């Protein structure tokens, strides 16, 4: 299959959107930008189209897809018994990086929801995404546009690395603004529950809803506790190199990383370091990359996946990373980083 690459970095191009919408309405696959990560879109209400997503990604069929909408009223076709909390959250955070799990209607095929009786719904903030959703019929299933097991794409070139020749079109809308997948909150239980942390923090959700809980599996080291979002149970992504997170006071972390790097280099190995704009100059060896600034935590979220992809292209045997427990996005950043590190944390 030939994959068409279209650029749409400066606002909506109606002609391209019309063409991409047509592909979606005919059951094809289009990757598109969102404010979190790039999505791999298909018509969510067309079982065959949704099934193609699993094939293109190599994704297990029990891992449900998020249905993307562009207008609040669209929700009534795909969800039933919509609680008042959903409207409150939509008013506060949509369009934006929040996904809500609701009871599904019969209009949504079980292929889309991985066999579940619930449906995850999100209205993305990126205007190209919303224009495409409308052009494509209003209901677009879109997981992150990576091959299963690779970091989510935050740039169109990442999508091309994984999906060129496999899907119909890629729309390049520039770098993803947030860089980590949306927060998922489940509204089908007694208390709203966060199934995946993201830019919209527990505190922001509590500000609107009062009490909000976090799925225990996300904060526990016990791997026997199954996460409630099926996708969170997969070790999303393991870098080719061994990744270690070094935690502790700023000075000790820098000393420890320098020591580990020196040891490895003495043994003739090439290693990587993930630091920040603030610490970058303090490291003495290895391939040193700055993930962003601690003064602007969104830059850290934005660069995490692309740095991991960059290290995969290089022949490093180990990567040592600082810990990024920043105030708002720290939980989301560390959730993804700890998974990538397979829980290898060195405390100093
Ligand atoms: O930011 C995002 O949400 C991106 C962009 C493209 O919108 N999409 C995304 O999709 O991250 P994906 O497929 O990579 O992750 C979806 C997650 C998975 O962990 C899945 O198990 C969970 O959402 N999920 C989907 N439907 C669910 C449901 N009904 N109940 C519980 N978890 C669900
Ligand atoms: Mg994903």
Tags for this entry?
348 residues, alpha/beta, DHBP synthase, Rossmann fold, twelve-stranded mixed β-sheet, five-stranded parallel β-sheet, 11 helices, 17 strands, 20% strand, globular, binds threonylcarbamoyladenylate, binds magnesium ion
Question: Can you characterise this structure?
Answer:
With 348 residues, this protein is of the alpha/beta class. It folds into two domains: 4-219, Alpha-Beta Complex (DHBP synthase), CATH 3.90.870; 242-347, Threonylcarbamoyl-AMP synthase, C-terminal domain (Rossmann fold, 3-Layer(aba) Sandwich), CATH 3.40.50.11030. It has eleven helices and 17 strands. Strand 10 and strand 11 form a beta hairpin. Magnesium ion (MG) binds at residues 143-144, 152.
Structure, briefly:
This protein has 348 residues and is an alpha/beta fold.
Task: Produce the secondary structure layout.
Elements: E1 4-7, H1 14-25, E2 30-32, E3 39-43, H2 47-57, E4 66-68, H3 75-78, E5 79-80, H4 84-93, E6 98-104, E7 118-122, H5 127-135, E8 140-141, H6 156-163, E9 169-172, E10 183-186, E11 193-196, H7 202-209, E12 213-214, H8 216-219, E13 242-247, H9 250-266, E14 271-275, E15 287-290, H10 297-313, E16 318-322, H11 330-340, E17 345-347
Parallel strand pairs: 1-9, 2-9, 4-7, 6-10, 11-12, 13-16, 13-17, 14-15, 14-16
Antiparallel strand pairs: 2-3, 3-8, 4-8, 5-6, 6-7, 10-11
The protein binds threonylcarbamoyladenylate (TXA) and magnesium ion.
Threonylcarbamoyladenylate binds next to strand 6, strand 7 and strand 11.
């Amino acid at each position: 299959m030939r994959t068409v690459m279209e650029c749409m970095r400066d606002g909506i191009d109606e002609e391209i959107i019309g063409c991409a919408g047509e592909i979606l309405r005919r059951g094809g696959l289009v990757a598109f930008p969102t404010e979190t990560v790039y999505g791999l879109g298909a018509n969510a209400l067309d079982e065959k189209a949704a099934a193609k997503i699993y094939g293109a990604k190599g994704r297990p069929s029990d891992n449900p897809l998020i249905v993307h909408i562009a207008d609040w009223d669209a929700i009534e076709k795909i969800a039933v018994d919509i609680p008042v909390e959903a409207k409150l959250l939509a008013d506060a955070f949509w369009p934006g990086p929040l996904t809500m799990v609701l009871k599904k209607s019969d209009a949504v095929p079980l292929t889309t929801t991985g066999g579940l009786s619930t449906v995850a719904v999100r209205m993305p903030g990126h205007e190209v995404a919303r224009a495409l959703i409308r052009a494509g019929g209003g209901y677009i299933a879109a997981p992150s546009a990576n091959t299963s097991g690779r970091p989510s794409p935050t740039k169109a070139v990442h999508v091309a690395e994984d999906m060129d020749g496999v899907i119909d079109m890629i729309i390049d809308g520039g770098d993803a603004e947030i860089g980590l997948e949306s927060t998922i909150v489940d509204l089908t239980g007694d208390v709203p529950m966060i199934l995946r942390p993201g830019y919209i923090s527990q505190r922001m959700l509590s500000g609107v809803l009062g009490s909000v809980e976090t799925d225990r599996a996300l904060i526990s080291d016990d791997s026997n506790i199954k996460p409630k979002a099926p996708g969170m149970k997969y070790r999303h992504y393991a870098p080719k190199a061994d990744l270690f997170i070094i935690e502790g006071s700023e000075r000790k972390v820098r000393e420890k990383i320098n020591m580990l790097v020196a040891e490895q280099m003495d043994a003739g190995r090439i290693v990587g370091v993930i630091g920040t704009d603030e610490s970058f100059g303090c490291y003495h060896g290895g391939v040193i990359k700055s993930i962003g600034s601690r003064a602007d935590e969104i830059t850290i979220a934005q660069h995490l996946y692309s740095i991991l992809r960059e290290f995969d292209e290089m022949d490093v045997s180990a990567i040592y990373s600082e810990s990024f427990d920043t105030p708002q996005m720290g939980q989301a950043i560390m959730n993804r980083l700890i998974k990538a590190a397979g829980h290898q944390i060195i405390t100093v």
